[in-house]
Write a structure and sequence with these properties.
By secondary structure, this protein is an alpha+beta fold. The protein has 6 helices and 16 strands.
């Protein structure tokens, strides 16, 4: 498709729909770049916050940065790997990217890591794409238009047909909730929240795959009542909402992205498969 004019700073739903296919290609290409990295030989460095960064993070970030500059040159990008170039607070639309979410999983040679790309308009995720290159899967959603899952080859050369996905209703009384939880980031508040749902079944996994399990109706809820970063949440947020779910903070309020100048922290969130459950 033709690039957006450089003057465009607000992307609406119709324009976002036209970007979905090339952005999906971009996420697949970033995933292929990650898979080309030899995890046995790569260097692992530490950031100022103590989190790891690898050449795979940087390779995926280059693919996405170049692709977004080509597809939407007038739209700013906030990437985890380029926060020093950020211009928050953002007005209108911007792309929010985590080129490799779950670096700890990647370094540990597990397959539960993702490429996260979200389009934020007026502080809310409008479009989200989550690619799990080692699993050969991409989940994507456009709020108001639905969500899908598709297979992708590991070299990004081909994609399967998109299959619609949808969240599921809250379990009836007496049936256990299925809760997707982090392998690497447990906390007492989240555990207390889960404990209020007796018999809850935990699905332990890494990265934004947890959002996608809720979006496709495999899990009922994904709570994280401890701080994380906006780029960890935004793409999964859009996919869950597009699939029929809801994301709130611990008090039921909506999340906002790119609105603060000093940090990109999400203090807490709950991904609800059934929106009505958040109101009980």
């Amino acid at each position: 498709m033709n690039p957006l004019p450089a003057s465009v700073t607000v992307i609406d739903r119709e324009t976002a729909a036209g970007l979905m296919e090339p952005l999906t290609d971009l996420v697949a290409e970033a995933g292929a770049a990650i898979l080309r990295i030899d995890r046995n030989a790569m260097a692992v460095e530490g950031k100022a916050d103590g989190s790891p960064v690898t050449e795979a993070d940087l390779a995926a970030d280059r693919v996405i940065a170049e692709g977004l500059a080509r597809l939407a040159p007038g739209v700013p990008t906030l990437s985890e790997e380029r926060t020093h170039l950020s211009a928050a607070p953002y007005r209108g639309s911007f792309f929010l990217v985590d080129p490799l979410d779950g670096t700890q999983e990647f370094v540990a040679k597990r397959d539960e890591y993702t490429v996260n790309l979200a389009l934020i308009t007026d502080g809310e995720p409008l479009l989200g794409i989550v690619g799990a290159p080692a699993l050969g899967l991409i989940w994507r959603g456009l709020v108001g238009r639905g969500a899908e899952r598709l297979l992708v080859t590991k070299d990004a050369s081909a994609r399967g047909a998109a299959q619609p996905i949808k969240t599921r209703p809250t379990p009836p009384p007496g049936n256990p909730w299925v809760v997707t939880v982090s392998r690497s980031h447990g906390d007492k508040r989240t555990e207390a929240f889960i404990a209020k749902r007796p018999g809850a079944i935990r699905q332990i996994t890494g990265s934004a795959v947890k959002f996608c399990r809720v979006a496709e109706g495999i899990a009922d809820i994904y709570p994280r009542l401890s701080p994380t970063s906006e780029w960890d949440v935004a793409a999964g947020h859009a996919v869950v909402v597009a699939a029929g779910g809801k994301i709130t903070d611990g008090n039921g309020a909506q999340l906002r992205f790119g609105t603060r100048k000093d940090n990109y922290i999400v203090p807490e969130f709950i991904a609800w498969g059934d929106p009505s459950a958040s109101e009980r």
